[in-house]
Amino acid sequence: MSIDVVREGRVALVTVNRPEVLNALSTDHLDELHSELLDLSRDTSVGAVVLTGAGDRAFIAGADIAELATKTPLEARAYGELGQEIAHRLETMRKPTIAAVNGYALGGGCEMALACDIRLCSPKAQFGQPEVNLGIMPGWGATQRLARTTSLGFAKEILLTGRMVSADEALQRGLVQAIVEPDELVPRALALAAEIAAKSPVAVAYTKEATNRALHGDLGANFVHEADLFAILFSTEDAKEGLNAFTEKRPPRFIGR
Question: Which fold, 3-197?
Answer without folding.
Answer: 2-enoyl-CoA Hydratase; Chain A, domain 1 (3.90.226)
